[in-house]
Amino acid sequence: MYTGNNILIKNGRLIDPANNVDQICDLFIKDGYVSEIGQLDNDCDHVIDATGKIISPGLIDVHVHFREPGDEEEETIASGSMAAVAGGFTSVVCMPNTKPAVDDATSIEFVHRMARQARKTFVYVMGAITQGRKGTDLAEMGLMQKAGAVGFTDDGAGIQDASIMTRALKYASMLDTVVSQHCQDLSLGSSGVMNSGYNSTVLGLPGMDPLAEEMMLWRDIQLVKRIGVRYHAQHISTAGSVKIIREAKQQGVPVTCEVSPHHLLLTDDCIYEYDTNYKVNPPLRTKADIAALREAIKEGVIDCLATDHAPHLKSEKELEFLAAPFGIASLECALSLYVKALIEPGIIDWPQLLALMTHKPASIIRIEKGTLAKGSIGDVTIIDPDAEYTINAEKFYSKSRNCPYHNWNVRAKVERTIVAGEVRYSAD
Ligand SMILES: NC(=O)N[C@@H](CC(=O)O)C(=O)O
Ligand SMILES: [Zn+2]
Ligand SMILES: [Zn+2]
What we know:
Zn(2+) 2 binds at residues 155, 182, 235. The protein is globular, with a radius of gyration of 21 Å. It is α/β, with parallel strands linked by helices. The model has no long low-confidence stretch (mean pLDDT 97). The chain has helices at 77-86, 105-118, 141-146, 162-175, 198-203, 210-227, 239-250, 262-265, 287-299, 314-317, 334-343, 350-357, 359-364, and strands spanning 7-16, 21-30, 33-38, 47-49, 54-57, 59-64, 89-94, 122-125, 178-181, 194-195, 207-208, 230-233, 255-259, 304-305, 380-390, 409-419, 422-426. Strand 12 (230-233), helix 7 and strand 13 (255-259) form a beta-alpha-beta unit. N-carbamoyl-L-aspartate (NCD) is lined by residues 65, 97, 155-156, 182, 280-281, 308, 310, 325-327.
């Protein structure tokens, strides 16, 4: 008989990067919180044998798109939450580019309410920087923060106007919050659909200049230096961006950044058949960019990994390349993709990977999560690092199927996802 909320996880490789822990042991979760770690013999009805498995703090993704309100046929907060736990994520941060945009306190509360009802993963929200994400008038950032917004972004677009960005950064500084930017200067071209270069020329498709990303990133860093505010660069994709961030960090600028799985694994060579599942913003770049991003991860220049899970309808992705929407759905296979990109080639090891997916993203949005220290919330992901499987997008809990990794053979399977001491996902 099941008599309570307690779970005993036995004999796993417990990796808690925040506390430099990497050892075979047991973990006891009591009433939703981490209660004991060690060789345990607690009396418990719910025992999970984790022999050969990794016990990790619940994974955290600071960049996902759930499409509610507005495009519920693509993803709802409930379907996205289920996809999250299936991917091992116990906390995600929703972007505000819904319809309407999340640009006021009521909308923030709406997302929280739907997430509570879904009762899968913890869902945090970033509010829009500008009203309706139009880039012209600041939204009520203070009120949204009071309602629980963990940061601000107009993701899908960057703030083009430097004076608006200055005002946003000053407000954010006052509120001690983080501004998250999608770096893309549209004055260098707003009609591009893929990386500009040899492939875009051959395919006859309008290109997106790497400089459009780097120019906005560089501009923002100058503003951040002057104002003094936490700034996060979303989904950076070019070798040039790595260089800008590395230099800014050397100068002590409070900048952080994330990288998405597709920018570590795919290049614009993939677009030769005009498959729109490879259409994403920022676009897939080149082998040299992948090498620079991987090297930056090894060096510690990248602060976290984030999926930028961007679900879209099949009917929209079936449009011609020029007209199809940008985005890749990857929440449910992200961990395996990072393993392929970073662990298999020997760039980083498991503790380093998990740091980039747990306490490091937690510190960017300042939530007290991402560790298994005694007293922490019972958010745990159990991973079989050796399990091999084939990604099957048709079986995703996500409502969308726009996944270029369908049929890929990968490693590392999420076995169980425990959120606040409750098993919310189980692979079998
Ligand atoms: N990344 C994408 O290609 N698309 C995102 C928007 C974004 O993250 O910029 C989306 O909302 O679909
Ligand atoms: Zn973006
Ligand atoms: Zn995004």
